[in-house]
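This section describes the prediction task in plain terms. A model, or a person checking by hand, is given the sequence of a single protein chain and must write out its three-dimensional structure as a string of tokens. No templates, partner chains or ligands are provided. The sample shown here is typical of the held-out split.
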Amino acid sequence: MTDLLVRLYTLLPLGIEINKQLIQGITIRHAIIPEKHFAANWVRDNFNLFWMSECDVAFHNLPVMNVLLKTFLVLWVY
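The expected answer:
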């Protein structure tokens, strides 16, 4: 398997990075559909309607994109 762009089998376990972020008050977890309006509104307010549409489409794909929550600020990552 020498043609891989990213050697996923050499990455550290995700739990290590999740714990590092948790110490900083950031929770990394899967987004859920009932939170879609929070994400879409945040994207609209901080970017524009085009990105809001992208956010909406991302929620219709499975698995749903991951979400970072820090206090009440919601940051969405793909």
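For orientation: DSSP finds three helices and three strands in the chain.
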